[in-house]
Task: structure prediction
Amino acid sequence: GENVEQHPSTLSVQEGDSAVIKCTYSDSASNYFPWYKQELGKRPQLIIDIRSNVGEKKDQRIAVTLNKTAKHFSLHITETQPEDSAVYFCAANLGGKLIFGQGTELSVKP
Amino acid sequence: EAGVAQSPRYKIIEKRQSVAFWCNPISGHATLYWYQQILGQGPKLLIQFQNNGVVDDSQLPKDRFSAERLKGVDSTLKIQPAKLEDSAVYLCASSYGGAGEQYFGPGTRLTVT
Result:
């Protein structure tokens, strides 16, 4: 079955710096890769997603890149702000089933 | 639009007791998912419904967990009997189809003592 590895598990940056979170997946048939943000005690919320026919997608300060050959995708957050502090999860969709990574706890220090 | 609703939000039970969770998906969403999220981990899919049929329940511990989605709308997830390791947040999610954005409910935090 599909397996998703996510790194790093924790990430601390200064406000205004960039943050990068990386994920790898195992099944080349996976075709949809969402990123979720989960604040403490709250539900996961989709922040950006990318499909396998696209290499990069950007939405304001957030961007996602996908390398299908290497089977990895990354989340890039620029000009980080304290409100970006949360746990971020990547996921890969295989046949309608989302497999999540282990999460990255991002801390943005003012 | 109204989001995914879940109840209860919190539940504390003793081991070997039973518990049930309820989920009401977004109107019109055919696909419904139940996830288990243990503290510090990503959500793990327990069961996926398409309308009222089960699509995937490969990771559902069927000796103690059961789920149903009567009439293809609301769903209930039951644990009987509960074990200490069942302590987790149980998230319900729904999507219009099977390969698009999933919308999560607020979750039910279960503590088994």
